[in-house]
Prior knowledge:
Blueprint: E1 17-19, E2 23-27, E3 31-36, E4 41-42, E5 45-46, H1 54-69, E6 75-77, E7 98-102, E8 105-106, E9 109-116, H2 119-128, E10 130-131, E11 134-135, E12 145-151, E13 154-155, E14 163-164, H3 167-174, H4 176-198, E15 202-214, E16 217-221, E17 230-234, H5 250-257, H6 272-290
Antiparallel strand pairs: 1-2, 2-3, 3-7, 4-5, 6-7, 8-15, 9-12, 9-13, 9-15, 10-11, 13-14, 15-16, 15-17
Helix pairs in contact: 1-6, 3-4, 5-6
Amino acid sequence: MASSQAVTTTELDFWPCRKGKVRDIYDLGDRLLMVATDRISAFDWVLPTGIPDKGRVLTGLSCFWFRHLGFPHHLISTDLSPLDWPSGFDYSPLEGRSMIVRKAQVVPVECVVRGYLIGSGWKDYQRTGAVCGIELPPGLQLAQQLPEPIFTPATKAQTGHDENITFEQMTQLVGQELAQRLRQVSLELYQKGAQWAAGRGIIIADTKFEFGLVDGELILVDEVLTPDSSRFWPEDQYQVGISPPSFDKQFVRDWLEQTPWDKNSSPPPLPDDVVQKTRQKYIEAYERITGEPFPWK
Length: 297
């Protein structure tokens, strides 16, 4: 059954919490509880209107990819029943959107892989002929597939946009050996994910991975290959030279661009039709990638 209301906050005041734009992360002592809310951001603002079940799509897709990619990860369980809940507490709104995960020392770099020339990479290329210091052939067009995927790291920002950096700058942050390992693994995971998605009519134009270290072991953390961390394009609507439609917050961005909002003050609430179209796009991405019906309709 479809949710009637977006879950935009989870106030579990019996556990220490830190909040991101979308996720609320609770400290369970030896583990973390990561809850993907239905909050949605655009133009560096968290909007006052959530997208029902968005957090469940992000969590469900991440769990799928953790299983499919075969790389060590932080997911322990999605079963919330064993947790030490206060007597009578109803945790059912958290089901489907929550992961119990291992604690890790998070690597302070966004591991971005680009297979197509779009977004900040396109702007960088227009200006310099390169992306994050990687020289590219002349004459490439908007949204064109690159000769081969490239690794373009970025610094992690608590607010605002992450900042693209060169591989050399990354090595100064994390060391040569770890930087090389992160580049290799990120490219391999992107190619494996992109190949799977291509068989389901979706182009993964680019994505960002986050990694952590547990007792020296490199693991995937946070979300993986979701519409929030990646650009998903429908293959049947892809065309070089234009920005393709995507399986994410396109309807939200398009609507906001048509309003008088100045992007420097609190954003307006979203109308119902934009909310529903956006929800449908997230669910379509889930169903195409997993090959399963979305369980929370």
